[in-house]
Amino acid sequence: MEFMERPPRYRGPNLDPTGVRLRPRRLDEGVYALMAFPPPKDNSGLIVGQHGALVVDAGINPAMAHQIQQAVRRLTDRPILWLANTVYHGDHTFGNAAFPATTKIIASRQTAASMTDLDAEKRARAQNLDGNLAAIAEVTSWRLPDVVFDDHTEVDLGGRTVELWHFGPGNSPGDTVVWVPEARAAWTGNLLGHRRVAPMLLEGGPAPYIDTLARFKSTLEVKTVVPGHGPLADGRALDAWMAYLRELLEAVTRARRLGLSALATVETVPLPRGHGFPRWHPAARLNWLVQDLHRLNVLATYRDLDRQPTAA
User: Fold this and answer.
1) pLDDT tens digits, residue range 138-157?
2) Which pLDDT tens digit goes with each residue over 124-135?
């Protein structure tokens, strides 16, 4: 279940799709990142084979799903055979129903299992719409995956094989990585972003997340990371996020042992060095969000430790 408590003054990512534009970035022949501007709106992706295409994530509503499909049509005339959902969250899946019935939706079994309560998911995502609840008002049904997998599967697009991996829980129970081996490109949804950003602990503590990222790193040699939100990244993000989560867990554990309250810990544990963008970086506008996510992670880690059994 998603962690719904928020620290004081928390704003979180603004996912209102109003005015969003998708900018294609070619990563290889027939392989594109569809980057959302302005960030941190939802990125997408397109992988094209001889027989057809696979799209990564569906957008937050039918209008955004149609914009993704329009971007695809400008890049290829091949049919969209597959749509991969990297996470169950509505900003990645509410657009599912706007894709053709001939498009098969694929997701991890854990992601599909989380897509049960549309009203609850709409309430959760409404917190990140900057008051524009109309953006999801027309989402009245949740199109579920047609195909599910456990840990790994492959999709043949004709001369191009796309791999889907579930390494374990991170931001959600079913986080999925969409992998194109020839391009060494990975669409990571909410599991992994730029090394200078912070994770978002929504459904668990740091320890399982670290294990998941370690399995990711040991399995795939990534050149390009296309996160669900924010700028393109590279394989260094894996080490940076694992280091962040370890430092977070250690710092919050120390604070609890000193008797600090949850809110005092939020105000005490600083953002580790190396996170946040230099002033000259185009993504520097996201630094307030990095700080917000860190404060949320401190609180989520504190509450997760509260739930752990007391050592004998």
Assistant:
1) 999 999 999 999 999 999 99
2) 999 999 999 999
Q: Average pLDDT, stretch 97-124? A: 97
Residue 252 CA to residue 243 CA, distance in Å, equals 14
Is 7's pLDDT higher than 60?
A: yes
Contact 62, 138 (CB under 8 A): yes
Cβ–Cβ < 8 Å for 31, 139 = no
* Structure tokens that stand for 15 in this block: 């996912």
Note the pLDDT tens digit of each residue in 251-272. 999 999 999 999 999 999 999 9
Residue 175 and residue 125: Cα distance in Å, rounded?
17
